[in-house]
Amino acid sequence: MRQLSSVEVWLMLAGGLLMVIGSGASLFLQSWAPYVFAPGAVLFAAMQMRQCYEGSDFTIRRLRKMMLLSDVLFLIAALLMFANESNFLGLNYLSYIKYVHNNWIVVLLIAAILQLYSSHRIANELEKEAKKR
What we know:
Blueprint: H1 6-27, H2 33-50, H3 58-85, H4 93-99, H5 104-132
Helix pairs in contact: 1-2, 2-3, 3-5
């Protein structure tokens, strides 16, 4: 895996912190929460997308794709947070309640589980690969 520079690591940590603050503030019904969560999601996803795997191990490549899927889900959660604040999608009330209202939490949970699983598995697989050499 390509290692991030120290600035990129700090940007990734700042993005993760902004995501935590934004999601926590949203639970307390703060209207500014999506404006904090969205830049955090963009920073976090961008820094993870800068990491790349140059090897040929199929398992690590699959786990890397799962990690990129979780990054996309973080961005979708940010979009749903904005849609939760105001119905800018133009849906009628019943469709809005069914498809949008607080569903960002479900998307965020799925993204977090995928992120947690793939990051730990990638670390284990890279360790195994290093032992083979």
